[in-house]
Amino acid sequence: MTSTPSPPEPPTRLGSRWRGLLFFLPMAFWTLGMAGLIGVMGMISPSFQRGGYVAWVRVWGRVPLWLSGVRLEVHGLEHRDAPGPKILIFNHVSLLDLFVLGSLAPEKAVVLYKKEFARVPGMGMALKSLGMISIDRKNHQAAVRSVARASERLREERATLMMAPEGTRSRRGGLQEFKLGAFHLAATHGIPLVPMIMRGIETVLPMGSVVIRSGRVSVDYLPPIDTSTWSAESARSHAKDVREQFLEYLPAEVGTEAE
């Protein structure tokens, strides 16, 4: 399995923290308020819930990036938009992921989100009203049911399921080991995987910070990975192979064997 990374990029030139501080409160009000509006629209409009929300979600994500002076450089959108069901897997860096993912939301997106997000004002209502699927990682049986619902949506709606195979953000920086959920699902149903690799987020909004600094974030969508010959028994091996593909772009988490 090989990939062709985009050319090495010069280091991101960061802007001052003052811009992030100046727009912090407007961005917070926008993030929660716009999410609440999207949630209300999803509850009252079936057509909005079936796909009309995509343009709104993209605007929801783009406004905070614009206010913060964060520029997106995106490669491979044709892979995100390939027809048919697919599982889009992305590296999880910091809270800025939400705005990047929102600004690039695919059509017919299905998101598996941590149940804790349901308690966030506005966002919880939006996720629920748009039919996204919460997952309780502390309850294995409930988590299995959530993944089963997601697989039904993939097949019936030919949707794009968005998952972070690391499971959570790294506390030490770098790419963590991959959990097997996305790979079992892909193997069981023969659904292609599309890697989405984000770089630069760790610089403009490091883990633990809440102030976004201006800079550049690059996003690479890689060609879909055919899983039609995979088996559930080989999922661990395939997860390792796909992680190696991510590591062509990203450093490994500190202390891992692939560092």
What does this molecule look like?
With 259 residues, this protein is of the alpha/beta class. It has a single domain (17-246), classed as Glycerol-3-phosphate (1)-acyltransferase (3-Layer(aba) Sandwich). Helices cover 43% and strands 15% of the residues. It is built from ten helices and seven strands. It has helices spanning 17-22, 24-44, 46-68, 77-80, 96-103, 123-129, 140-157, 181-189, 201-204, 235-246, and strands spanning 70-75, 86-90, 109-114, 133-135, 160-163, 193-199, 215-221. Strands 1-7-6-2-5-3-4 form a seven-stranded mixed β-sheet, sandwiched between helices. Helix 6 links the parallel strand 3 and strand 4. Helix 2 packs antiparallel against helix 3 (46-68), helix 2 runs parallel beside helix 6 (123-129) and helix 3 (46-68) crosses helix 5. It is globular and about 50 Å long. The model has no long low-confidence stretch (mean pLDDT 88).
**Strand percent estimate:** 5-15%
| Structural domains: how many | 1
- Strands of the biggest beta sheet: in what spatial order? 1-7-6-2-5-3-4
CATH class: Alpha Beta
Oligomer: single chain
**Radius of gyration, Cα only, in angstroms?**
18 Å
The helix/strand series, from N terminus to C terminus, equals HHHEHEHEHEHEHEHEH
What is the distance, rounded to the nearest whole angstrom, between the alpha carbons of the first and last residues?
Answer: 19 Å
Number of helices: 10
* CATH homologous superfamily grouping: Glycerol-3-phosphate (1)-acyltransferase
